[in-house]
Each structure stands twice: as structure tokens, then as C-alpha cells.
Write a structure and sequence with these properties.
This protein is of the alpha/beta class. Helices cover about 35% and strands about 25% of the residues.
Amino acid sequence: MKAIITDAGFASRYLPITKTIPKAMIPIGSKPVMQLCVEECAEAGIDEIIIVATPNTKGKEIYDDYFHNPAENVKALLDKQGKLERFEPVEKILKFPKITVIEQDPTLPYGNGSPIVSAKKFVENDPAFVVLYSDDLILGPGDVKTLMDTYAENPSAKAVIATQEMPEDVWHKYGMVALKENGSLSHIVEKPKTPDLSPSNLTSYGRYLLTPEVFEYLIPSNTGLDDELWTVDAITKLAEHGDVVVAHSRGKWITTGDPKNYFMAHLEYVMNRTDYAEDVKKYIASML
């Protein structure tokens, strides 16, 4: 199976750094967010990944360099210094599944569905494919594996979406899931203004398994809210014609879409998944 990872936006909330590098290249621990998404795919058995970069930027060039440049000069220097073990993380990157980097089609409308449409030719003849939004980070068991396992159990599904239970005070920030009687997706209520307008406590975010039928609805003329091309609008259309299975995340979803949430995601990652976690915890305790 193939995966599309999207990073096709200017990330204005992160300026000025994102005028130079893509948001998904900002690090979590010692790895950029994009690498963590790629690792989630690799661990699930994905064999080809398409990264969609922002058009008219250096994004494509940066991703190509990061995932494909063997950095032989760095390796030679480390070897000379007797520090070749420091190059091992680079060698792991070079062994990832096939990664193709493309730019989003600049003629498409603004919206999170446009990067997927830009990668259509890579996946349209496959039974299904996975989509990841790179500003959604999963700690623990990856959602890609959960989506693939769920699809294997429901091969007639039009799509599978990952969800997570969220507290009432944040429902207004996200897409909240409405279920049919059989437990599959009915529709998604985007950013309900009050809690009573939310159909459940389940949040949908940027982890989907889609079938090529989605491209019947994910077309430039089908813009929705704010004249944007929304993936969830197309998924809702799929749900009108069959089952869109709702899978519950086995990990923990954290958004890195803005600086505050990015910092909290970074801190949680460091405190739970690095070999210097205890030192960080002690340092934080000394500040309190």
C-alpha cells in the first residue's frame, strides 16, 4: 500500500522560520515531524510514500535532500574522526521505503484536499491508500497500522478514518464525528460552536485510509467552507454511498499545527521517548 503525506501550506503561524523551511521539518526531539510520519508508515509496512510539498518554495528541494542525499562528505569526516556511529541515523533514513516528493498543483483551490488530488496519479489504480497530515503526530502505536488492519477486516469499506476521544472544552477546535446506527461514519461536524452541536466526543484528524472513489468527489469544483477543498467533505460523500469505518486510535494524537501545541507535543515526546527524558524532567522540576 502507498501513503500520501501532505505538507502543502505556508504555515503562517510559524513565521519567520517557515519562510525558509517547511513546517514539517521542525524537529520533535532530534527528528523532524515529517520523519516521524514516514517512520509511522514504514512500521506499518507501507512500501511507497508520496510527500506533497508547498508549491513555489524550497520544500521539494529540502525534502529530497533530507531523504535522498547520502551525505558522503559527512560520513567520510566522521569516519576520519572515529565517530562513524553518529552517521547511523542518516543510514536509517536512506533505507526508508521509496519516497517520491512532489509539489502541490498550484492551480488547485486552497484546502487540505488539494495535496491529495495532486498525488492522484500515484494512487488512483490502487485498491486503497493512506493519507497523513504531517502536522498530526501520533505517540505510541501508529494510526497507519490501525487503519490498514481495520481495512483488512472491512475490505468493502469506502474509507477508514482514525478518531480519538477528546474533552468537551476542545470540541470547538476540531471535526467531530457523527455515527450511523451501525457505528460507521454518518458525517463530520466541523468546529461546532457549542458542545450541544457536537454529535459525539470523537474527533477526526489527519489520518485516513481512502479508496480511489474519493476522487469522484475531491474535485476543484467541490469547494466548501471558505471556498476551500476539504477532504472531510469528500469522505462524507463516500459515507452516503457505503460504509466509512471509524477506527479508534491505539496511540495518542497530538497536533503540531501551531507553536503552542507544537511545544507541548515536543515536550511530551522528549519526556517519554528519548534517552535524556529523566534529565529534562529534573530540569523542569527545578524550575517549579
